[in-house]
Amino acid sequence: MTYFENIDQIKYEGHKSTNPLAFKYYNPEEKVAGKSMEDTLRFGVAYWHTFTMDGSDPFGSGNMIRSWDKFKGMDLAKARVEAGFEFFEKLNVPFFCFHDIDIAPEGENLRETYKNLDEIVLMIKEYMSTSNTKLLWNTANMFSHPRFVHGAATSINADVFAYSAAKVKKGLEIAKDLGSENYVFWGGREGYETLLNTDMKLELDNLGRFFHMAVDYAKEIGYNGQFLIEPKPKEPSKHQYDFDVATSLAFLQSYDLQDHFKFNIEANHATLAGHTFEHELCVARINGMLGSVDANQGDGLLGWDTDEFPTDLYATTLAMYEVLKNGGLGRGGLNFDAKVRRGSFEQEDLFHAHIAGMDSFAIGLKVAQKLIDDKVLEEFIEKRYDSYNHGIGKEIIEGNTDFRKLEDYALQLGDIQNTSGRTERLRATINQYLLSVSSE
Ligand code: XUL
Ligand code: CO
Q1: How far is it, in rounded angstroms, from Cα 144 to Cα 27?
Q2: pLDDT tens, 152-201?
Q3: Which of 90, 148, 265, 347 lies at a C-alpha separation of 20 to 30 Å from 275?
């Protein structure tokens, strides 16, 4: 059966094309700095936003028109797999990602849920054996069901802790079975509402215990994908423990877990934490912890996680700059944790949205590489910190000073001279690169 009847294979047609169902900038085979765009960008489709999200919001019911919605229960789950692989192939996207309950409905009890999962995982495995699309990551949804009302690994209820452990155990087995490149932990309900009723120390200790058990189990079954924590400061919890990269890194260090994890950084989560996307990528990169990316964007006028498809070229450029400085994403990728707007309810919109996101990151990649090739920012930054290359600066870097010596030095200083940061000039230069590279 065909689910996207009027859509053919999406091809690269170049930036002069007027065909809305074609890539204008993403050319999978095109080499940028010796590596194909496909291999650098490693795009992924999010199963939940693409095949299960129905468009409902707190003010209205679902409105998405989807050809697979005529089915129910396990038939619906199977139809989504068929539609999914048709979509991945037509879009020529190398990866996809899912939560356990995206692919198979929960049963009456955990045993039944496992049975449903096993059946669908087998089907996915068969499809994967003849498809180019691989699994970037899977994860366990430990936030939707009412049992997770007070959290999962940080729940007040030990039964919920145990149930959550069972879900992640199963998730790791599925990850191994499907050859998943990564396994993600996003703790939407791992946080608290008020300290009036919360033992924060016990909750954090339990989270540490939970992650150690996950690391041990992966080792035991021989699953060697990369573990990723996806920070987010709030929503649905008022205060989430994995607030941002810096907070999560401190947690991993405190619980001796740092060597087993990297980060999956989501643009809209960064902005919710009061950071830019590139800030979070940079904090992860300089600590050797940049694992993967949930590529989306928020809305400056709205204060929540709008999960929009990324179209802001400035943001994709600065994000790709960090990714390239990191030497790429390794086992990670750019997963579109993004949903079409409620008004974009036709199936065709799923293609338009992904094409827009893929083209935007392709431009970001090309511009970022050119900025690196021309050393535009590097040279400026190097010069800006030149005082550390000689004299007292060099002494500081080489560890040859102490407060006494620095005081002696400071006492004989006259007026201190600073130089301009040239923010506006640099921004104008990026605009110039964006305009010239994207019309090449
Ligand atoms: C929620 C979010 C999740 C994670 C996976 O904001 O980003 O979809 O990516 O659980
Ligand atoms: Co995400």
Answers
A1: 38
A2: 999 999 999 999 999 999 999 999 999 999 999 999 999 999 999 999 99
A3: 148
Burial letters 135-149, b for 16+ CB under 10 A, else e = bbbbbbbbbeeeebe
pLDDT at 440: 84
Q: Which amino acid is at 280?
A: E
User: What span, in angstroms and rounded, lies between the C-alpha atoms of 278 and 282?
Assistant: 6
Burial tier of 193 (Cβ tally within 10 Å: 0-12, 13-18, 19+)? exposed
- CB atoms < 10 A from the CB of 124, how many? 24
pLDDT at 439: 85
CA distance 91 to 230: 26
Q: Is 354 a catalytic residue?
A: no
pLDDT value of residue 86: 98
Determine if residue 293 is left, alpha or beta; phi over 0 gives left, psi from -120 to 50 gives alpha, anything else beta: beta
Answer for the pair 415, 2: CB distance below 8 angstroms, yes or no: no
Establish whether the linkage from the previous residue to 236 is cis, with ω within 30° of 0.
Answer: yes
Degrees (nearest 5) of the Cα angle 190, 297, 136? 65
Which pLDDT does position 387 carry in this prediction? 98
Which H helix or E strand runs over 335?
strand 334-336
Active-site hit among 49, 100, 102, 305: 102
Residue 359 appears among annotated catalytic residues: no
- CA–CA separation, 370 and 358 (whole Å): 19
37 C-alpha to center of ligand 2: Å?
23
Quick one: pLDDT at residue 269? 98
